[in-house]
Amino acid sequence: MTDYGDEGRRIETTAIHAGQEPDEGTGALMTPIHANSTYEQDAPGDHRGYEYNRTGNPTRTDLEANVAALEGGEYGRAFSSGMGSINTVLNLLSAGDHVVTGDDVYGGTHRIFTQVYEEYDLAFDFVDTTDHDAVRDAMTESTELLWVETPTNPLMRVNDIGALADVAHEYDALCAVDNTFATPYLQRPLEHGADVVSHSLTKYLGGHSDVVGGALVTDDADLDERLGFYQNSVGATPSPFDCFLVLRGTKTLPVRMDRHCENARTLASWLDDHEAVSRVYYPGLDSHPQHDLAAEQMDDFGGMLSFEFDGTLEQASTVVEETEVFTLAESLGGVESLIEQPAAMTHAAIPAEEREAAGLTDGLIRVSVGVEHVDDMRADLDAAFDAAAE
After folding, report:
1. How far lies 41's CA from each of 36, 45, 56, 105, in Å?
2. Residues 103, 104, 160, 178: which is the catalytic one?
3. Looking at the domain that runs over 253-389, which CATH code has it been given?
4. CATH topology of domain 9-251
5. Residue 251 a catalytic site member
6. Residue 106 catalytic?
7. From 203, 256, 355, 366, active-site residue
8. pLDDT-derived band at 4, boundaries 50, 70, 90
9. Which of 42, 49, 220, 305 is most buried by its number of CB atoms within 10 A?
């Protein structure tokens, strides 16, 4: 496992301590919730580091330092949602710029690219980012951003961050990596050459399905300053309470991720041998096309998997409706297990023909494997498969 911070601490220690010191005035161990909208100034323009809550908040500062340290980065910015962080990266671009990204990105990412920023004269190409020749062929002189997910949502493709960063830099473009699925506990894109890392804090870093947030991390001071300008100007910033909740979540990220990964490995192997399942998408399986890359680039294989149910669309819908341990819901990364049908839920914003072309079929089922006992998960899915077969 990689060393973290100036003192060479491991990530388990960093998760608990980075950005968080006992309060100087009271000795309070937990970061206080600074519920302020404004701050007293000692003289006009002479403040003590904070002037207005949208611009900065002490609770948010601690969260930003914590997430940056987890990613091994110098600078962190927190946002009110993962989409807020993605939007802020797009704010860096200008009319006429071009973006290359994956053909199976998260549906909300696809939506903001095509239904929001195409209206402002940005151009987007969606390609298989595991095919580096296809990525290079899509790059142009006007390409300013290569947006990468790894593992991808929901087909669990693993992208070579270092190789893609090299392609982006050949064209003087930024390489941004959405690290939500892997988390910094398993993968740190800045170590592989990425310029900026994006997170939905709603997911594993929050970890308890009770907060929505986003984050960006970079090592580039100039880039961070630009991101900070848009963070303040647009104002998609999290509340102090939301920051407090995510800080509570990051403390247990390592222990939670260990259990998520253990359960997902077990469940993926079981599903891979199940007669009701035609295909399993999980990087930890030897059969996964990028298994070797995942083993090299990641410290474990994560808690997300998808599978193709061997039946009709209606039968697949029955599976996700009949589970009890798995809750039918969007989102992921909480301690509880979730199940969903991407074509009808998280990726419904992508046109059907584009979904099919990318391999995202109507019968695909995505699972966020929680920390319950894996035997209960298997029994739950088995009962749902039986219900679908009736």
Report:
1. 14, 7, 14, 45
2. 178
3. 3.90.1150.10
4. Aspartate Aminotransferase; domain 2 (3.40.640)
5. no
6. yes
7. 203
8. very low
9. 305
